[in-house]
Amino acid sequence: MLSKRSSFNATLFRKNLTRFWPLWGGASLLGSLLPLYLLMTLLSPYGAHVTQRDIVIALYSVSTVALPAITLVYAVLVAMTIWNYLYSARSVGLMHTLPIDRRGLFLTNVLSGFAMLLLPYAIAGGLGIVITLLFGIFPGLAVLQTVAAVVGLSAFYFGTATFCAMITGHLIALPVFYFIGHFLAVALEFLVATFSTNFIFGYTGPSSLSLDFLSPTVYIYRRFIAEYHFDEALMQGSYTLEGLWVVGVYALVGLALLLAAYALYRVRRSECAGDVVAYRCLKPIFRYGVALCTALTGGQLLYEIVWHPTFQTGNYYQMLPMAVCMIAAGLVGYFVASMLLEKTPRVFRRSWPGMLTVAAMVVILCGCVSFDLFHIAGRLPAGSDIESVSLTAYGETYVSVDGDDPLAEQVLALHSRVISSESYVRSMDRRQGAPERDTDYTTVTFRYVLSNGETMIRRYYLPFTRERWDTDSASYDYAFNHLVNSGEAALSRVTIPTDGELTEIWANLYYTEGIWEDLSPDLTNRELEQIYQALLKDAAAGNLPKVGFSADPAENYLGELQLEYRAPDPEQAVDYNYHYCYVELTDAMTHTLRAMEAAGYPSLEELQAAMVAELT
Amino acid sequence: MIEVKNVVKSFDGFRALDGASLTVPDGAIYGLVGPNGAGKSTIIRHITGIYRQDSGEVLVEGVPVYENPAVKGLIAAIPDDWFYFPSASVRDMMQFYRGFYPKFDMDRYQRFQEIFPIPEKSVIRRLSKGMQKQVAFWLTMCCRPKYLILDEPVDGLDPVMRRQVWSLMMGDVEEYGTTVLVSSHNLRELEDVCDHVGIMSKGKILLERSLSDLQENIVKMQVVWSGEDTPALPAELNLLHTSHVGRVYTYIIRGNAEELKHRLSALSPLMMEALPLSLEEIFIYEMGGEQYAVKEIVL
Fold it and tell me: Each residue of A438-487: pLDDT tens digit?
């Protein structure tokens, strides 16, 4: 029986390396500039000061910043050269006539690809290792970690590039699919979020990219990082490489994609050379995918150009014109995708059923989002799920408290009132073109950090009217006034967290020219504490400036106070972070002004006199 | 033996092969002829393992060719548009072929340098089309294939080189029993070299026979009738074409020459002669039955 299975073919392997040497040779040359730079630095007068720690930092920077981007680009270039033969009927004819089966071809090509990918890294890395060994600053662990990152990233990116190479029959389509594939999830999430925020009342989109793991480069850049730690005892910082496991997981994904690519190659038709999409079953996905993406991007763009400047009233999109714009853009996308697949512009007659489907999809999408089918606008977190909450308006954060603070309940109640006033807000929003007396607009943001680690943000552009503000106890205007202008809110605004430490207070005083030159006296810890305590006293006494219609016109703004404090920050990678709190300084804040005067700032009387002098 | 059995192959709904079947006996030189778009190149791509059929079987030595390196090792092919690596020299391509075909004959490669006057360090891309074809022959013949598959092989070769190439090929057939499948439009040339012929049209093999059988089965009868009126020919005769110049009538009739002579002599012609048809004529008349549009223009 004439039958045998072929595997690795050394001739093809050598041929690949010799044919495409300019690619990996050029990459090696460029990569070798790094060890050359290292060598020149070590030979320079500064070289004596270079320590192993510096090399570690440099390696980690290269691993986390340069490596993913370089490998992302280089892997697809390698894949384009290795799989190039699949995209021409002539070359695929030769390769598939040879006495080697597809398993052998695939294995040999993949190994050649890996060799081309890793050779430049090996050459540059090898030179670097030799240099650091010669100078006695070889960082063993960091080198091992970097090698692991190089191998992992190469496996992942070459795996994805090979997978993309298999689903297309066109050389240009390979990098297009590859790069789109790598960023599609976050791009789509962003597009859908942008689209939704302009329809759904208060919605700001997801607070974080929940699908970023499907856009690996984004995910890798967010998780694979060099983390700085400061040892206060030693008064020295150090770096650790975090998230190498992410690279490991993606490397496994890359290997899985290589297996999938092999399975595809086994059934790939040689005659698909030149086709944008190599498999019939993927063609509808391509058609409708392109149509949907074009509808989302082109539709919004078209709306912004055609409808928004002239016809839109209010801040929210109007469904009907948006649907029309999206259908127009979606149909163009579908038509272009069909032309690419059929390799002819004469596709209109056969495209109309698909175009109708696209139009229906767009209408359904617009309807779902416009009518808020998933009740996103009405969602409020349960009080027990809230870790912390903050309320921002007029550009200032007025409430920022833990979930168990009584103010948190008031914020939730206010938010609930805002949600139930959606139709009122939308109607006022549409009337914005004609400003009314005693109506004030501001952006109000509710931010909840939930116990599951997620953050929920809702943002509203709210109209406030004096009547509702002062007297309508059922309105959100009233609730807002009584919350934001309350003593409790003022106190919470300027209170440093219990685990925080006040580090500095700066005052930016408006009318000091000519009377006071020392703009930032060095405050002792005692003076800092005295000013802070005075500020708390003013807050409790209701002396902090009010907002909205409750603002006292008789109050004079003398400047701004900036409090700096250090506190643990669970959202940041570092152990603690500096936070800032800004408070407008008025002549009603007598306690604070007196404490400041005691610390060397001008007195209230001096400031008032300076103000009068300047204003008159 | 190469066997193609009932092979169907469609490209986006178009049936390029529609139940095609052919058999190439061992040691035969099989000429595959047919109009443009008949499916000749498609069937050849199946035999060389490039395409996988939708249905049917493509067998060489009784086993499927597709994804079978052992069988493919016995086959060497020159497609109508032979591929070489863009920067490759003759020597580079020789090394490439040598790495895949275990029987690659280096002695032959050296000897053929005298026949194909092309420096082996020449970059193939820079050679003329005819010279590139010579390189293709050079390398392919060195693979010592048991089955040689050629698609429009001598296009671009000058007459001297054509003769050289055919001579080499026939030498291999004689010496090593190589089986050759060759598709060509040049029917006069095929007539000189082929011993079997298959005629293809619209994705099917219309007929395949040895060349001698084929030529014996269709006859050109030139007849001069005695009277003014032309007698009606017997209805059972399979008449493919009639023409006349003055009183000399030419009939193309399917059948045996002796038998036809006997039948027509009953109509008392003044003169009658049976002439053999060339392969080109056979092709044209067979295609005529398939409503081949060129027929009338040629005639």
Answer: 888 889 999 999 988 888 999 999 999 988 988 888 999 999 999 988 88
Q: How many other CB atoms are there within 10 angstroms of residue B127's CB atom?
A: 17
Four-point Cα dihedral B145, B149, B151, B154, nearest 10: 50
Considering the domain architecture, whether residues A106 and A81 belong to the same structural domain is answered as yes
Per CATH, the number for B217-298 is 3.30.70
pLDDT digits (tens, 9 = 90+) for A221-262: 989 998 887 766 766 777 888 999 999 999 999 999 999 999
Residues of chain B contacting residue A9, judged by C-beta atoms under 8 Å apart: 99-100
| Residue A609 falls inside a structural domain | yes
| A101 with B61: Cβ contact below 8 A | no
**What ipTM was predicted for this assembly?**
0.88
Interatomic CA distance for residues A421 and A463, integer angstroms: 11
DSSP state string for A257-312: HHHHHHHHHHH--GGGTT-SSSSGGGHHHHHHHHHHHHHHHHHHHHHHHHTTTTT-
At residue A370, the 3 state secondary structure works out as: helix
Do residues A472 and A502 share a domain?
no
CA B292 to chain CA centroid, Å, is 18
Number of C-beta neighbours around residue B278 at 10 A: 14
User: Across the beta sheet with B2-11, what order do the strands follow?
Assistant: B14-24, B2-11, B55-60, B63-64
Using DSSP, state whether B38 is helix, strand or coil: coil
Burial class (CB in 10 A: 0-12, 13-18, 19+), A54: middle
Q: What percent of chain A has pLDDT over 70?
A: 94
Query: What tokens does A211 get?
Result: 């699908």
pTM over 0.80: yes
Tell me which amino acid residue B286 is.
E
Q: What is the pLDDT of residue B149?
A: 96
Q: How far apart are CA A95 and CA B82, in angstroms?
A: 11
Residue B271 burial class via C-beta count within 10 angstroms: exposed 0-12, middle 13-18, buried 19 and up: exposed
| Interface A:B, Cβ pairs < 8 A | 79
Residue A396 has what DSSP assignment? E
Q: A370, A405, A426 — which closes off a domain?
A: A370
Interface of B with A in 34-53 (CB under 8 A): 45, 48-52
Token pair of A149, please?
Answer: 């990152």
Q: Are A490 and A539 contacting, i.e. CB atoms less than 8 angstroms apart?
A: yes
CA distance B30 to chain A (A): 20
Using the beta-carbon criterion (under 8 Å), do A11 and B68 form an inter-chain contact?
no
User: Does A95 fall in a domain?
Assistant: yes
CA–CA gap between residue A583 and residue A594 (Å, rounded) = 16
CATH topology for B2-210 is Rossmann fold (3.40.50)
Mention every residue, 6+ apart, whose C-beta is less than 8 A from residue A434: none
The minimum CA-CA distance between A267 and chain B, rounded to whole Å, is 9
**Distance separating alpha carbons of residues A326 and A303, to the nearest angstrom:** 8
Contacts for A110 with CB less than 8 Å, ≥ 6 apart: A82, A158, A162, A258
* C-beta atoms of A270 and B45 within 8 A: yes
H or E element at residue B47: helix B40-47
The long-range contacts involving A234-242, CB below 8 angstroms and separated by at least 24 positions, are A238/A53, A239/A56, A239/A57, A239/A60, A241/A60, A241/A63, A241/A64, A241/A142, A241/A145, A241/A149, A242/A573
- Residues of chain B in contact with residue A97, where contact means CB-CB under 8 angstroms, are 48-50, 72, 75, 77, 79
